[in-house]
Write a structure and sequence with these properties.
The chain is of the alpha+beta class and 171 residues long. It has one domain (4-168): Nucleoside Triphosphate Pyrophosphohydrolase, CATH 3.90.79.10. Helix content is 25%, strand content 37%. It has four helices and nine strands. The protein has helices spanning 20-26, 74-86, 140-145, 152-168, and strands at residues 4-8, 14-19, 31-38, 43-49, 60-61, 64-67, 96-107, 110-120, 132-139. A four-stranded mixed beta sheet has the order 6-3-8-7, sandwiched between helices. The protein has a three-stranded antiparallel beta sheet with strand order 5-4-9. A hairpin with a 5-residue loop joins strand 1 (4-8) and strand 2. It is globular and about 45 Å long. The chain starts with a strand and ends with a helix.
Length: 171
Amino acid sequence: MGELVEIVNEMNEVIRVVERSVMRKERLPHRATYVALCDRQGRFLVEVRTLSKDYAPGLLDACVGGVVTAGEDPDVAARRELFEEVGVDASSEKVRLERLGAFKIPSGDLFLYGYLYYAVADAITRRQASEVSGIMYLKEDELLALRDNFAPDSLVAFEEILRRHKAQRPS
């Protein structure tokens, strides 16, 4: 049996559990994590997705993250994805991970629920070769100038992460 994923309704309530391949094939609404990883110079980590990805192969990702597996806590999933994809250990005192809540992300003719995070770290990264072809760091304006090259959901999540993060910062 493959990886199991919880399918959710419009209120983010679990309505069934299916294999990830079924979720992708039938384009079912699910949960995912999105972490905007910023270094102390204000540059964001951008991933180049491998051509073998089951969603948006070869496009850029504005966030580190992925599908939340059945029964997995989103905070645990976000930390797992940070470590798996780019080798950043969110439990390190050198990493600040800020939880920004859930957000319904439109994705074409469907939706998914994204759990949003803002992370700050100066870290040596190690890409997961099976999922990430390359990594670069871009300033916010540089990243947004390339918007047509990103997986659409990651860009929507990135913009919402920045909006929520900036709203929480004292003026």
